[in-house]
Structures are given as structure tokens and as C-alpha cells.
Amino acid sequence: LCNRIDRNTGGIVIAAKNAEALRVLNEKIRERELSKFYLCICLGRPEPPKGRIECFLRKDSKTNTMRVYHHPVPDGRSAVTLYETLETRDRLSLVEVELLTGRTHQIRVHFAALVHPLLGDALYGGDASRLARPALHSAAADFTQPVTGQSLHITAPIPRDLRAFDFERYL
Q1: Segments of the chain assigned E as strands
Q2: In the 8-state DSSP scheme, what is residue 31?
Q3: Is 46 within 8 Å of 64 (Cβ atoms)?
């Protein structure tokens, strides 16, 4: 596997067919030549509606969750997320997210730090009464096929449980 997604998150996972393809794809990930895009539904409306979240994440061994730090900390890893709010309705926002780094729970933790946790994400403060999982979907990826050099844009269909929140125009 070249990338992974959080448990209960649907969508794209990229796998290599052989060791050389894996090496090339991992290099593209390191060089940020493989772009990953997510859709999420968060509580409230992020301000500003478009932005960059940049901080350090470190696992809290007592709670088994990730914590945000706005300065370097021992064992902390840099995490960068770009986001754009597509629509807000009924105190929920559909947000498109591009990961510039891929840390455990990165999107979930970043939006919780903005005080706009993901719908269904009880671990990081989201309302789980309307959805039994974090409202997060790995929707698209752009990269160059490692053998042929062909530019690829891969998409994954939006799951039914996320379609139920009436953001159909963007899905």
C-alpha cells in the first residue's frame, strides 16, 4: 500500500503492483507529486472559508489520540492541510481538503483544533448522533502512473451515508 486512510473512512487507497512501482510512488508521495483530496462534513462554518492549517501533531499515549501543537515538540510531526468550504447548510459545512502531509487522524484533528470537528467524530468532539463514523471520504487522487508516465485522476464514489446531508451539487 502506498497510502492508508483512517478506519471508517471510505474512498481511495493506492496500491502498487510490484516493488519498483511502490518505490516510485513512495518517492512521488515524498516529493508531493501525488495529491490526495478528501471531502468532509464539519460542524459549523470554518473561518476563513478557505485556508491552510499548519501545526505539529503528537500522539497522546494516555488518551490514544493525536494532539495539536503550534510549535515544534519532541516526537511531534509537521502536518499541513489545505481546505476550502464548498457549502454550508443546517449548521454543517461540506469542505474539500487537500493533504500536503499524511499524518494519523490529520484532517480530524485539524478541524477539531479549528473548533469545527467532523460530523460523527466522537473521538475529537464531533456530534455522533447523526452519523456513526467521521464524515470523511478520500474522494480523489492525482498522480503519474509509475510505469507508463500517464497522468491519472482517480475518484471514488461518495457513500450513501454522506449523500444524505444534501450536498448533492458538490458530490
Answers
A1: 10-11, 35-43, 50-60, 65-69, 77-89, 92-99, 136-144, 151-155
A2: T
A3: no
Annotate 73-116 with DSSP letters as a single string. -TT-EEEEEEEEEEEEETTEEEEEEEESS--TTHHHHHHHHTT-
Strand pairing class (10-11; 136-144): parallel
| pLDDT tens digit sequence for 49-88 | 999 999 999 998 888 899 888 888 888 999 999 999 999 9
Percentage with pLDDT > 70 across the chain: 99
Sequence letter at residue 16: A
Predicted pLDDT of residue 171: 66
Q: Is the four-CA dihedral 159, 162, 164, 166 of positive or negative sign?
A: negative
Distance CA 130, CA 61 (A): 29
Query: Considering the entire predicted model, what is its pTM?
Result: 0.90
Q: Which residues are catalytic?
A: 6
